[in-house]
Amino acid sequence: MAYFNSINKIAFEGRHSKNPLAFKYYDAEALVLGKKMKDHFRFALSYWHTLTGGGADMFGQATFERPWDELDGLALAKARASAAFELMEKLGIEYFCFHDLDIAPEGNSLKEKFENLDAIVAHIEALMKQTGIKLLWGTTNAFSHPRFVHGAATSCNADVFAFAAAQVKKAMDITLKLGGENYVFWGGREGYESLLNTDMALENDNYARFLQMAVDYKEKIGFTGQLLIEPKPKEPTKHQYDFDAATVLGFLRKYNLQDHFKLNIEANHATLAGHTFEHELQVSRINNALGSIDANQGDDHLGWDTDQFPTNIYNATYCMVEVLKNGGIAPGGLNFDSKLRRGSFELEDLFIGYISGMDTFAKGLLAAAALVEDGRVDTFIKNRYASYQSGIGKSILDGTVGFDELTAYAMDNDQIVNKSAKQEWLETVVNDVIYNV
Ligand code: XUL
Ligand code: CO
């Protein structure tokens, strides 16, 4: 069954094209720094926003025109899978990501849930074979159903912990079966509302116990993909335990899990944490923990996770600088954890949303490559720290001096001369590069 009959495969038409259903910057096979554009990104479609989201908000029902929504049960799940693969093929997106709940109906028992999953996974596997499209990551929805009202791994109710474990086990099995390259943990309701009813120490320990079980299970089944944690500071709970990259790294180190997890950094989550996207990416990168990326953007005037398709070229540029400096993002990728606005309800808006995101990142990649090649920013940063390349700075780095030696040095060198940080000039360099690619 085809759903997007009036739309052909999206072509690259170049920057002067006015065709809304064409790429202006994203040229999949074009080489940038010796590597195909598509391989820099490893773009992925998010199943939840794209196939199951209907545009409902707390004031109004779903608005999206989705012909497959006339069906229900497994027939609906299969139709959504067909629509997903048609969309990916036409957009030239080679990966997808899903939660267990996105692909199959919940059923009335855990057993039924698993049976539904098995039925639909066989269908998805066939579509993957047919199209060559791959699974970037799988994950579990352990936050929507009312049983997760108090969390999953951090619930006060041990039965919920067990249920969530069963769900993750199944989702990891499916991810392995479908050749998934990563498995993501986003702490859906792993957090709290009030300390008046919360044992934070036990919840933290239990979360770590849960993650250790996932590590053990991964080894048991021979899943060689990457495990990822996706930080987010708030929403749905007021205090999410995985607040930001630095918090998650500290948590992993406390529980000796740091060798088993990398991070999946989402742009809008960085915004909610009061950070820039590039801050979160760089914290991850310099700690050897940049695993994958959820691409989207928030709204400067709203304090929640609006998950918009990314259109901000500066953010995409800084993101791609981090990816380049990371030596690429594989085995992770760039998953569009992005959804259409409620008013963009026509079927073709799905294409337009993805095209805008892919073009934004293509432009960002070109600018990032030009910025690195231009060298003015990197050279400036290097020179800014030149005092550590010789003399007393080198001794500090070599670890050959302590407070006594430094005090003796400072006594003779107490007339400090600093240099300007030149932020405004550096910002014009970035503008210069972006305007010229
Ligand atoms: C929620 C979010 C999730 C994760 C996967 O804000 O980003 O969709 O990416 O569970
Ligand atoms: Co996300």
H/I helix tally? 16
Q: For the CA atoms, what is the radius of gyration?
A: 24 Å
Oligomerization: single chain
Overall pLDDT, averaged? 98
Distance between the termini: 41 Å
Strand content: 5-15%
The unreliable regions are none
Reported for the largest beta sheet, the result is: 8 strands, parallel, barrel
Task: Catalogue the ligands.
Answer: D-xylulose, cobalt (II) ion
Question: What structural class is derived from the secondary structure elements?
Answer: alpha/beta
Shape type: globular
Number of strands: 14
User: What is the H/E string?
Assistant: EEEEHEHHEHHEHEEHEEHEHHEHEHHHHH
Walk me through this protein's architecture.
The chain is of the alpha/beta class. 47% of the residues lie in helices and 12% in strands. It has 16 helices and 14 strands. The chain has helices spanning 37-41, 47-52, 73-91, 100-103, 110-131, 158-177, 200-221, 245-254, 267-272, 277-286, 313-325, 347-374, 376-384, 391-398, 403-412, 423-436, and strands at 11-12, 22-23, 31-32, 35-36, 43-46, 95-99, 134-139, 182-186, 191-192, 226-230, 239-240, 261-266, 290-295, 334-336. The strands form four sheets. Strands 5-6-7-8-10-12-13-14 form an eight-stranded parallel barrel, surrounded by four helices. It has a two-stranded parallel sheet with strand order 1-2. It is globular, with a radius of gyration of 24 Å. The two termini are 41 Å apart. Bound molecules: D-xylulose and cobalt (II) ion. The site of cobalt (II) ion has 5 residues, from loops.
